[in-house]
Amino acid sequence: MPKPKTAEIGKKIIYLQEVSSTNEYAKKIASEMPEGTVVIAKKQTKGKGRKNRRWASPEGGLWLSVILKPDVEAKDIPKIVFVGALAVVDTLAEFGIEAGIKWPNDVWVDNKKICGILTEGRLGEFVILGIGLNVNNDIPSELIGSATSMRLLLGRELNLDKVLWTLLGNLERWYKLIQERKFSIVMSAVKDKCFILGRWVEVINDESKVEGEVIDIAEDGTLIIQTSKGLMKIFYGDISLRLR
Ligand code: BT5
Questions:
Q1: Ligand 1: centre distance to CA 171 (Å)
Q2: What is the pLDDT of residues 47-106, one digit of tens each?
Q3: What is the CATH number of the domain that holds 50?
Q4: CA–centroid distance, residue 57 to ligand 1 (Å)
């Protein structure tokens, strides 16, 4: 295995052959573990997305959760999802893949999802940054057309350890900026990489379904949409691109 190049993120790594969900596992041990501990599994039997959706996690992908104990105010915790997204975008770039962020928690390449991120936590105690990145794994038949992997894009098997260490290095770099409260650097990178800016979208969440043009991502991480009824601030939701 390549030598670890990170100081904090991945200083301790728990490798599992199989687990229901690395996020669930990480949540159980988070209080006793040092910040930066990574839980990684070869496969997940119940990998989860937001709202308990399923996350397909067969062997060959990178399924991991990082235990973080950020020293920032509660209002800044939602920005941690962007640490994951930016680190994945940078990692893919290092392997020659140009990817973009689909606010708030996806990374896409060529109109297909390659990575999903799920943050969970206990306020004032810890945040679990869960990252699922399709590397060498097969894409389940029901997701062909909407999902892709590094292997599909590059036409070759990748060294999973190399992808992991590249990702941990990038996570450390972006997370350091959060710890140093340099939020504007993080948010301007998010805006730079977010391909839905300026696009017409539909956003669905528990409260509403709105359509409009994405005008901005605010400093607090929320999405600003110009709708027929005026500007709207969106805190969370599922985004679909629409043609005007
Ligand atoms: C997400 O949810 O995208 C967050 C996924 C987080 C997965 C990681 S893996 C390590 C850690 N441990 C866990 O248990 N979870 C985290 P959401 O935005 O709700 O998207 C879920 C949707 O993505 C599903 O309903 C499918 O349509 C699609 N999907 C499922 N598996 C996929 C895959 N492997 N690749 C691409 N798309 C997938």
A1: 19
A2: 999 998 999 999 999 999 999 999 999 999 999 999 999 999 999 999 999 999 999 999
A3: 3.30.930.10
A4: 8
Choose one of 28, 42, 50, 55 to mutate for the ligand 1 pocket test, by most ligand atoms within 8 angstroms of C-beta.
Answer: 55
Domain count along the chain:
2
* Global confidence as pTM: 0.97
Report the C-alpha gap between 8 and 49 in whole angstroms: 26
Q: Which of 197, 236, 242, 15 minimizes the C-alpha distance to 104? A: 236
Whether residue 39 sits in one domain with residue 146 = yes
CATH code, domain with 236: 2.30.30.100
- The residue whose CA is least distant from atom 21 of ligand 1 is 49
Report residues whose beta carbon is within 6 angstroms of any ligand 1 atom. 21-23, 44, 47-50, 53, 55-57, 63-65, 105-106, 113, 116-118, 130-132, 134, 143, 147
| Same domain (yes/no): 93, 206 | no
In sequence order, the 6+-apart residues with CB closer than 8 A to the CB of 80 are 68, 70, 119, 127, 129, 175, 178
Same domain, 219 and 187: no
